[in-house]
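Suppose you are handed a protein chain with no further information: no name, no annotation, nothing but its sequence. What can you learn? This example shows the usual starting point.
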Amino acid sequence: MATFLGFGERRHPLPWAILKCDADKEGYVVNLDKKKLESAPNYDINMKFEWTPETGRKIDGYFEVPSYWK
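A reasonable first move is to predict its three-dimensional structure. Written in structure tokens, the prediction is:
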């Protein structure tokens, strides 16, 4: 799983499956509707975030990708 996108005071964890490497941009790109991302699971930048199987499954389910988490 993922990298984090920051928008204001929130962070959005993303599954690796939705990230596409773009050599021209020298980074990852995502093809997401702004409303979908705004509604995605997120956390406050001041909060300590820890990946758990439950959190991973929730994020994978939201983005409708196969889950790495069993």
